[in-house]
């Protein structure tokens, strides 16, 4: 691959050539940060344990060595301070990429995020902006218990002035992260930690496949971006539309394959801005829609998607829109797989939609 | 009442029952006020350490009170900044102008020209004198009562009034509550209505300046009441960890709406003493002494600019008026507090100092006050040409949807069309002005 590709290169067939560079999601994110820091001296990385150690998930490994302590550094354990300081750095003209170690830890920083970062451009009529990209691992399936497993994306999609982006593959993780860093608005970049090392299918009792067997693990070197607000067509099909993001893209795909369902699967990639056009085209084609997310059900982003599909595609629908989600409980430790919206819950929903 | 664990014997039954301490101010409405318990050391008594001294060598300054202007109206001691008379007159002029501005804007709110206003009466020195000790391009992250900084930095008054009226001339497009100014050109950060959020932001800005090897420093202002917010403590931690070139100004005006400073911990220690636990330099300053405010800020600015690190300054002052146009202080505190306040009035003290120097007199003061009032009156009339709140002369409807993001996403486009449609239904053929 060339060192500075500005358009997203085609890589769908690359898996068959075997000659391309293959990365897991951690290395793809690390690569994106490295590319961003190399291209723009205003990009800085900060967060708990991200410096010398390289992050608890290793996403920032090697960056301090390469780019220096002034641009990659550890922070106090204070999410309020991390995001607050990042807002000030953004006002100065830097492009901070703070890491919040787990999405579950982000709450002490919410006021700085919701009332400050997300509102700076509006309240100052554009005098000050917050070009922050807040990276944070989210989601369960790693036996993290209730404080290392949450999916709080709907808290952020509910806030005006902030973008919410969630990659589902290494290729997307790099291209989307570079877009987020270059974006002049604050972005929450949630990394589905269950698929950092491989595309989890939801069949938790089977061995995990590494990313290297997946076509989207081919990650070109150098710079490329994937525009925010454009969904990815995972699979074309006629029987129903599946809307998903993050880990659940792979789970839904695997369940449809196992059941022989000819699904039109969209990986939304960003929730705000949302690719409403792709959703409408797909649902109007199939007439059926299943929404899958790992987050709790009530007021989850699935409720928004369900409302949008109903408002815009009602006369094309042949069955009620279905949601498959986590339960409205905290994420339990020992009962993790009973909580997780896995193959059984998705399979049941597929049967229901297709029987109407 | 929560049960003890089953079977646990009651412990300590020979001791008095635990009791909760809910702070109570010394004086409530109607009470005679006696402030003799407030320790006011003589002007000039406090030592002035070297700007790059170790924080351990200046602990006493967090409990004392840096004062320059004495009872004799003369400047005393090592903190005397030795400003020339012209600078002192400029300082006095900004303070008089701020007071005249506050009077007029408060009245404007009572006349229904806007929804809200906040005066800084009695606290003018804490913003004006202190900000005059900074460079014009040092970034300030104010709270809501530092209008004096904008006046001292020469921000056009008409912009302030346009903002207060939320009219069509308002640079902030009528989006912000009155007095929540923003001016990048004057290195004045956009004010938030959420308290203390600006403090870690100021530290972050200062860190960025240090990362870039810049020469500019940051300063933030926060009320003593909101030092209780977690943001303030995050700011102190980040400031000390990264030795950030920042000044944390705590304006202790004794009152947070109706809650006295005891609800932020003032019964136990000083606010300047917060610095000690963090290893920050801490100064406690007579906030009604313009020369002391200037000197302390200059000390901290020099320290920050030479990589000496952050300073926390407590300005001990008194909020002479209500919190805002929305509260009546006679409902929660004694009216005598203002007249009995042992540190006097900052404008009077600076004026008397200039007179004592032979550089000023009552006639010139009277003339200056009149000119300030006339200037504010004239600019107010000019701003009213752009409209007052609620009288139609606001920004166009679609501006409501701008600046949420850099670009308008589809859902905001749809909602913008809805707003315009509603307007056409409500005002067919357009609004008559």
Automatic annotation (TrEMBL), chain B:
Organism: Qipengyuania marisflavi
Region of interest (Disordered), ranges: 1-53
InterPro entries membership: Alpha-ketoacid_DH_E1_comp, DH_E1, Oxoisoval_DH_suAlpha_N_dom, THDP-binding
One Pfam family cited in the UniProt record for this chain: E1_dh
Family indicated by similarity: Belongs to the BCKDHA family.
EC number annotated for this UniProt entry: 1.2.4.4
Domain 2-oxoisovalerate dehydrogenase E1 alpha subunit N-terminal: 16-54
Listed Basic and acidic residues bias regions: 23-37
Reaction catalysed by this enzyme: N(6)-[(R)-lipoyl]-L-lysyl-[protein] + 3-methyl-2-oxobutanoate + H(+) = N(6)-[(R)-S(8)-2-methylpropanoyldihydrolipoyl]-L-lysyl-[protein] + CO2
Keywords: Oxidoreductase, Thiamine pyrophosphate
GO MF entry, a single one: branched-chain 2-oxo acid dehydrogenase activity
Keyword Membrane: no
Protein name (Swiss-Prot/TrEMBL): 2-oxoisovalerate dehydrogenase subunit alpha
Dehydrogenase E1 component domain residues: 94-388
Known role: The branched-chain alpha-keto dehydrogenase complex catalyzes the overall conversion of alpha-keto acids to acyl-CoA and CO(2). It contains multiple copies of three enzymatic components: branched-chain alpha-keto acid decarboxylase (E1), lipoamide acyltransferase (E2) and lipoamide dehydrogenase (E3).
């Amino acid at each position: 691959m060339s060192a500075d590709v500005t358009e997203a290169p085609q890589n769908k067939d690359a898996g068959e050539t075997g000659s391309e560079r293959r990365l897991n999601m951690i290395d793809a994110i690390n690569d994106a940060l490295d590319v961003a820091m190399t291209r723009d001296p205003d990009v800085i990385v900060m967060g708990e344990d991200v410096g010398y150690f390289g992050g608890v998930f290793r996403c920032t490994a090697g960056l301090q060595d390469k780019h220096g302590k002034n641009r990659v550094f550890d922070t106090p354990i204070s999410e309020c301070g991390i995001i607050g300081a990042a807002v000030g750095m953004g006002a100065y003209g830097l492009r901070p990429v703070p890491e919040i170690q787990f999405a579950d830890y982000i709450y002490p920083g919410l006021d700085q995020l919701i009332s400050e970062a997300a509102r700076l451009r509006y309240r100052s009529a554009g005098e000050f902006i917050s070009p922050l990209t807040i990276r944070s691992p989210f989601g369960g399936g790693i036996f993290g218990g209730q404080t290392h497993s949450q999916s709080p994306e709907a808290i952020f999609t509910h806030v005006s002035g902030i973008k919410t982006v969630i990659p589902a593959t290494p290729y997307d993780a790099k291209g989307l992260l570079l877009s987020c860093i270059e974006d002049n608005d604050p972005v929450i970049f949630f990394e589905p930690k269950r698929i950092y090392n491989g595309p989890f299918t939801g069949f938790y009792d089977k061995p995990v496949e590494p990313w290297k067997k997946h076509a989207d693990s081919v990650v070109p070197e150098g710079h490329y971006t994937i525009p925010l607000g454009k969904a990815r067509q995972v699979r074309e099909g006629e029987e129903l539309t599946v809307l998903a993001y993050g880990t659940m893209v792979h789970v839904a795909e695997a369940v449809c394959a196992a059941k022989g369902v000819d699904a039109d699967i969209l990986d939304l990639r960003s929730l705000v801005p949302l690719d409403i056009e792709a959703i409408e085209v797909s649902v109007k084609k199939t007439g059926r829609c299943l929404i899958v997310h790992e987050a709790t059900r009530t007021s989850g982003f699935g409720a928004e998607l369900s409302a949008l599909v109903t408002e815009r595609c009602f006369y094309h629908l042949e069955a009620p829109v279905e949601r498959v989600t986590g339960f409205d409980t905290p994420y339990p430790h020992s009962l993790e797989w009973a909580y997780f919206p896995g193959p059984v819950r998705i399979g049941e929903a597929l049967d229901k939609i297709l029987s109407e | 009442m929560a049960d003890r664990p089953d079977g646990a014997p009651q412990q300590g039954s020979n001791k008095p029952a635990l009791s909760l301490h809910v702070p109570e101010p010394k004086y409530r409405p109607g009470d005679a006020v006696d402030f003799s318990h407030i320790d006011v050391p003589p002007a000039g008594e406090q030592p002035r350490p070297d700007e790059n001294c170790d924080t351990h060598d200046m602990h006493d300054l967090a409990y004392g009170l840096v004062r320059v202007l004495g009872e004799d109206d003369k400047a005393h001691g090592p903190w005397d900044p030795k400003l020339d008379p012209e600078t002192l007159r400029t300082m006095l002029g900004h303070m008089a102008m701020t007071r005249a501005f506050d009077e007029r804007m408060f009245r404007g709110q009572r006349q229904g020209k806007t929804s809200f206003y906040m005066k800084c009466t009695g606290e003018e020195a804490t913003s004006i004198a202190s900000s005059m000790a900074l460079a014009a391009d040092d970034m300030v992250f104010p709270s809501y009562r530092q209008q004096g900084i904008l006046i001292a930095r020469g921000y056009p008054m008409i912009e302030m009034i346009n903002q207060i009226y939320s009219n069509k001339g308002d640079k902030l497009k009528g989006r912000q509550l009155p007095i929540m100014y923003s001016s990048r050109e004057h290195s004045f950060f956009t004010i938030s209505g959420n308290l203390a959020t600006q403090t870690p932001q100021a530290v972050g800005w200062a860190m960025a300046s240090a990362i870039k090897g810049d020469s500019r420093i940051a300063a933030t202002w926060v009320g003593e009441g909101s030092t209780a917010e977690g943001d303030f403590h995050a700011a102190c931690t980040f400031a000390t960890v990264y030795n950030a070139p920042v000044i944390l100004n705590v304006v202790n005006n004794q009152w947070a709406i109706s809650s006295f400073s005891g609800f932020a911990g003032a019964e136990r220690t000083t606010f300047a003493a917060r610095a000690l636990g963090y290893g920050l330099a801490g100064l406690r300053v007579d906030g009604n002494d313009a020369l002391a405010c200037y000197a302390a800020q200059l000390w901290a600015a020099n320290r920050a600019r030479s990589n000496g690190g952050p300073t926390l300054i407590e300005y001990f002052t008194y909020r002479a008026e209500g919190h805002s146009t929305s509260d009546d202080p006679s409902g929660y505190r004694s009216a005598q507090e203002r007249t009995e306040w042992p540190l006097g009035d900052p404008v009077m003290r600076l004026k008397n100092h200039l007179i004592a120097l032979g550089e000023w007199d009552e006639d010139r003061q009277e003339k200056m006050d009149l000119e300030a009032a006339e200037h504010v009156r004239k600019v107010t009339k000019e701003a009213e040409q752009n409209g007052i709140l609620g009288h139609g002369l606001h920004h166009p409807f679609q501006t409501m949807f701008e600046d949420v993001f850099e670009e308008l996403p589809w859902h905001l486009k749809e909602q913008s069309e809805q707003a315009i449609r509603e307007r056409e239904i409500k005002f067919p053929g357009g609004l008559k002005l």
